[in-house]
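> example.struct
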């Protein structure tokens, strides 16, 4: 099982999360590429630390929305969105190469991630960007999303993702952050949920029903309060259950 986290999400003097600590736990790093968060200095530092920690580097691409942290939907033209995604991958690729590695996968962020579950025009635009840049790059996304379906049709490798610290609807989508209970905080319970997901057992959805997920990667958000402790709990729970942790894109 791969364990990923969104990292490099500060900007200038503003810091968010403990990137160095999380890089000691996760196997893949979704690094912000400067549109929703991150800047050149942060990208270079996180890529260097990821290489030192043998963590796979992924491009965390999003809307051009620093004030909203990429969590607001933007009705951007598909052609422009394609070029924005290529721009972000290319920016991170430069710093990954300087660090002695490369970008190994692409994961959309925030509102873009959620939009392309159903928004086929924008999903197609993101897929086109990855195909144009490097069709060997896997893409990470929500199972059943238009994005992963279109990516698979385009010949991209698709990786199904689940979220350690987010609540799910009965339909298998994420509960909006604007609703109560959307973000989970009990590290022990999060650890148990991750073991269930990794071993094919159902978890409880927001309504108390049983939801089965079969992820290839589990995400722990780096900006969740107590993120390091949650990630460590998830790591310990998975390894204690006999689940080996390794990047899906080594």
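> example.seq
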């Amino acid at each position: 099982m791969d364990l990923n986290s969104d990292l490099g999400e500060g900007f200038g003097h503003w810091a968010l999360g403990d990137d160095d600590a999380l890089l000691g736990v996760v196997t893949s790093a979704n690094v912000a590429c400067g549109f929703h968060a991150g800047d050149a200095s942060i990208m270079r530092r996180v890529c260097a630390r990821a290489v030192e920690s043998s963590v796979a580097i992924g491009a965390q691409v999003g809307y051009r929305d620093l004030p909203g942290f990429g969590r607001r939907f933007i009705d951007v033209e598909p052609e422009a969105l394609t070029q924005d995604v290529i721009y972000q991958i290319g920016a991170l690729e430069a710093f990954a190469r300087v660090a002695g590695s490369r970008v190994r996968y692409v994961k959309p962020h925030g509102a873009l991630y959620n939009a392309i579950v159903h928004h086929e025009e924008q999903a197609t635009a993101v897929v086109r960007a990855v195909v144009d840049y490097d069709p060997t790059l896997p893409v990470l996304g929500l199972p059943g999303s238009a994005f992963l379906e279109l990516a698979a049709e385009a010949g991209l490798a698709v990786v199904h993702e689940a979220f350690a610290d987010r609540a799910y609807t009965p339909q298998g989508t994420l509960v909006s952050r604007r609703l109560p209970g959307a973000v989970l905080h009990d590290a022990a319970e999060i650890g148990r949920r991750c073991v269930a997901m990794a071993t094919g057992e159902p978890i409880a959805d927001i309504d108390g029903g049983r939801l089965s997920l079969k992820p290839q990667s589990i995400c722990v958000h780096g900006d969740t309060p107590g993120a390091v402790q949650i990630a460590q709990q998830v790591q310990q729970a998975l390894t204690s259950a006999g689940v080996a942790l390794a990047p899906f894109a080594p």
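> remarks
The longest helix spans residues 78-98.
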